[in-house]
Amino acid sequence: FFFFFFFTFFDSSVKNVFDQEGFSRQKRGYRNINDIEVNLSDPLFTKQWYLINTGQADGTPGLDLNVAEAWQLGYTGKGVTIAIMDDGIDYLHPDLASNYNADASYDFSSNDPFPFPRYTDDWFNSHGTRCAGEVSAAANNNICGVGVAYNSMVAGIRMLDQPFMTDIIEASSISHMPQVIDIYSASWGPTDDGKTVDGPRELTLQAMADGVNKGRGGKGSIYVWASGDGGSYDDCNCDGYASSMWTISINSAINDGRTALYDESCSSTLASTFSNGRKRNPEAGVATTDLYGNCTLRHSGTSAAAPEAAGVFALALEANPNLTWRDMQHLSVLTSKRNQLHDEVHQWRRNGVGLEFNHLFGYGVLDAGGMVKMAKEWKTVPERFHCVAGSIQEIHKIQSGNKLVLAITTEACQGKDNFVRYLEHVQAVVTVNASRRGDLNINMTSPMGTKSILLSRRPRDDDSKVGFDKWPFMTTHTWGEDPRGTWVLEVGFQGEEPQRGVLKEWTLMLHGTQSAPYIDQIVRDYQSKLAMSKKEELEEELDEAVERSLKSLMSKNN
Which domain-ending residue is among 334, 354, 376? Predict the structure, then answer.
């Protein structure tokens, strides 16, 4: 009362003073599973926090794939086939049998049409079955849980269970029935030991190229790849599958929004889904199907993340079967959300057109509801062009304590047929040798000021001979940017011991389009937000000035 009396006495601008009545407001995102209109009878459904997170298993409420919205819109994956390239699928499992596509399945380890997992006492070959359940486990059958796209068809491609992988087996798996299979999910890659640099061989590369160009009647096969489980010791840009432009690389978050301890970071990751929790809660893993008709709550890793993404993409394909492989990447960039994902080291940033990204999580967690709504109205993206923006092939020495800084200024092939105005992928093809490869650190900054960490330190990599030979480090962080201007590459060493090296080549490859209307709109929205934030800053400064004046006036009157 004294405050109102004092304020009205000294401030003639106050016209009236009213008593305020209290009423309730509820935090959005804090949901009870019974309040969501999804009625499924499957016993593990309430434990599938990554589908609908109400705080189960000590998780963060609202941190999920938002599948409920997609399901409520009527999208459950009908008419879409996802292939699980793995160690086989228990296609007799009662939660998978009704959605199993036998015609699209094959066993490339045994060369027969029956990709059933090979029995071992420790159930080592349960990986593919668990991944399959995440995507296509049937709903309302009182068995295990449900798949993200529970009315989709799942195919088994058994190709991991032999002593050694071959280029022919990989290529055959990736190119198996590309007119029937829509999405290929791969939760494997080179060894995640922090010292391997490896990727697809010649036949597999050709199979991938043919897939994106000819698969699905020319719309392109969609390849989903787990980014890797090497943790802070590894970098997924050293994995040629996850860092390929033709794949959608998926990282994982745990149920409280942090990165998992095994997650690798790299600039090629496009988006994230979920794995497990750090706390020892027995229900914090991914609930899915297991071998021999069983269920499990303990599936985890980026192995679990990739199939979840494949399921979300299946929902989007049902909403719009005409989506191309590039459309799916654009939709992932535009609809993924920061939500409550956070990391202590890598902060969220915005690129030159205002798209928010993170070095670990890509453009955020996939949002199934947002993706299907945008997919319904989506128009196929324009033709894609490739431009060699420039190349530096002189020998440059690298010393500990001194960063090597190189620059390429480009017009992005402007005036030519292959002009790139709006970026999708950018590759820095690098040849470099070092006394210790694992201590190398490579960053690249775009003309619009976006910094991509192309290679971070890998403390277990002792290589001093092979180095990187024309290795295509890739970034998605400059998506939508104008590539014209000066690109800067910084190469240096991190680590306690002094190192030396030689950079022999840096070739800058730009991939993108000549038109992108939605990018122009994003830029306008971003600029509007910036202007609004500046206005709010000015208003805040004004409020603070008024408050200081009032305090001064009150002290004088006292």
Answer: 376
